[in-house]
Amino acid sequence: MPGTFPPRVVNQLGPEVRAALDGFGSRLRIVDASRESDAPWDYAAAGFDRADILLTGPSAGWKRAPAEPPAGWAADAPGAPRWVQIVSAGVDGFPPWLLRDRIVTCGRGDSAVPIAEYVLAALLLRTKRLDALRPGSPDAWRRDAAIITGAAPLGSLDGQVLGLAGFGAIGQAVAARAHGFGLRVLAWRRGEWPAGGHGPVEPVDSLAELARRSDHLVLALPLTEETAGCVNADVLLHARPGLHLVNVARGGLVDHAALLAALDRGQVGFATLDVTSPEPLPAGHPFYSHPAVRLTPHLSWSGPVVRENSARRIAENIERFFAGQPLRDVVDAARGY
């Protein structure tokens, strides 16, 4: 890749990544910058106009970026970044021009384990009802015990069907853990199956078929023009009655009005939503108070080693950059992930 030497790195990812960058010593020139600026496209102010490598991530500032690239962003412009590393797996929160005419890599898989654990926790809470059964008195304790030992015993994941919409790093991490609970795992993906096939996961031909056959449907798809609103009224109309929908991907995958209608009529029995569109939802939105919705504030990615994973990935890609080797997890701008 052309550029200056030692390459100049603009780091918008904070001290954890800075510590990994410092390990390169004089091989890098590092500029720390914030990605929370009101105008992130004014990259001259942050030194972007003299960067070889830009390390960035989602922010409210990027969402306010203009539709057209700023002057000087063209790949052949003097000082424009030659490589952009995005810390997130999804790239839908960035303007399309950020992805064009240069190498862009992402954090695919860095938070797959905590997201998979979130999914299994959501399935267990739905099945075991542990958050609903919290007696506050001896009489309530006796009442709940009678319910469980009587007409409404706790459920089990063993033998239930888990549908995965998307089978990338997150879907694969969910599947690996789901099999340990005896779940039968189906998956639908838009692209080719990974090398080595799909193992014990059963592929299905469409999202509608996945919804029809699943007890729990987990959304782990990228948000693109093709997937936006894919969980729509038609898919939900044909869903298995009582379906548990879990969205750990992007809120824009789901038609919220159609989901609300499906919840109200009982076609969808419950929805665990870690993501919505917009985020947060406006005050008074029905999802805040709906008895069949568990809403969490986009936290499924959080885990004790996610930032370490990101820093390690960036360091590895920088070593590949120096060696002239292909970088890991390059984004396909045409596909949007």
UniProtKB/TrEMBL annotation:
UniProt domain D-isomer specific 2-hydroxyacid dehydrogenase NAD-binding: residue ranges: 154-300
Keyword Lyase included in the entry's annotation: no
Q: Which domain of life is it from?
A: Bacteria
UniProt keyword list: NAD, Oxidoreductase
InterPro entries this protein is in?
D-isomer_DH_NAD-bd, NAD(P)-bd_dom_sf
SUPFAM superfamilies for the chain: NAD(P)-binding Rossmann-fold domains
Residues folding into a coiled coil are: none
PANTHER family xref list: 2-HACID_DH_C DOMAIN-CONTAINING PROTEIN, D-ISOMER SPECIFIC 2-HYDROXYACID DEHYDROGENASE NAD-BINDING DOMAIN-CONTAINING PROTEIN
The protein's name is NAD(P)-dependent oxidoreductase
